[in-house]
Amino acid sequence: MNYGGLPGLRPFGLDNLETVNDYLQGVYNTILVKDIIRRKKIRNVPFLENLIHYMADNTGKQMSATSIQNHMTSNENEVSKNLVLKYMKAVTEAFLATSVSRYIIHGKKLLETNDKFYFGDIGIRNYITGGRRADDIEKIVENLVYQHMVRLRYDVKIGQLYSTEIDFVGTKGTDVVYVQAAYLITEEKTFNREFGNLMPIKDNYPKYVISMTPYMDFSKWEGVIHIPFVDFLKNDFGR
After folding, report:
1. What pLDDT, on a 0 to 100 scale, did the predictor assign at position 8?
2. What pTM was computed for the model?
3. What does the pLDDT look like over 111-167, one tens digit per residue?
4. Are the CB atoms for 9 and 20 separated by under 8 Å?
5. Per the CB 3.0–4.6 Å rule, which of 78, 105, 154, 192 could disulfide with 170?
6. In a domain? residue 20
7. Is the C-alpha dihedral spanning 141, 103, 202, 150 positive or negative?
8. 149 and 217 assigned to the same domain
9. 205 contacts: CB under 8 Å, gap ≥ 6
10. The predicted structure's pLDDT at residue 84
11. Within a domain: 114
12. Are residues 139 and 238 in the same domain?
């Protein structure tokens, strides 16, 4: 959750944090320079770096070229929408981050606007944002749940049921799962949001909430199953 899962970390472990950070910095700089700047002939490097930081800082949030353009303009960094789209495409083609589209559950169609972005390695994402930040935990949990669903070979989309957002809709052949990812469920309003968002889905495909809530194990409410976060990462949906 802090340093990611790149295989190069394994030989020297996580005891020397300076070495870990140097390694993450080296991998990130290699991707930035060789896979993006040189390969795509990027000219506005400061904007590219600002864009990547913005994407990392807003992991799991709706993002569009227009919203990024407005953000950059408000910070006195005027860029065109086409440039934003071009650089976002370069970032995803280097597999630094992945763009995830929205799926309209009640209409069974894709919505090609307001994608979300998740990073291929959470350690690199944390390095980009400046290391450990307490308010990042929700983003990290959501990013890791997305990553693991991809490892389980699900095609993952963001779900939309009328005005309600479902964190993930995963499909694998004829198999479909609906997933909410949360850090802690300790208040009734959080419970109602995480479990309540899934309950109105009318089909019979399984529905899951994944969280790090202490003392909440494999439990079921109105057909929605809770899976502890670590158990999910060590296995799958337990089916």
Report:
1. 92
2. 0.92
3. 666 789 999 999 999 999 997 788 899 999 999 999 999 999 999 999 999 889 999
4. yes
5. 154
6. yes
7. negative
8. yes
9. 176, 177, 178
10. 93
11. no
12. yes
The CA dihedral of 36, 127, 92, 212, to the nearest 10 degrees, is 170
Query: Based on the structure, what is the number of domains in the chain?
Result: 2
Alpha carbons 65 and 114: distance in angstroms, whole number? 9
Q: What is the pLDDT of residue 78?
A: 80
pLDDT tens track for 205-237: 999 999 999 988 888 899 999 999 999 999 888
Exposure string of 69-88, with b = 16+ CB inside 10 Å and e = fewer, is bebbeeeeeebeeebbebbb
Nearest residue to 117 (alpha-carbon basis) of 52, 60, 36: 60
What is the arithmetic mean of pLDDT over 44-64? 94
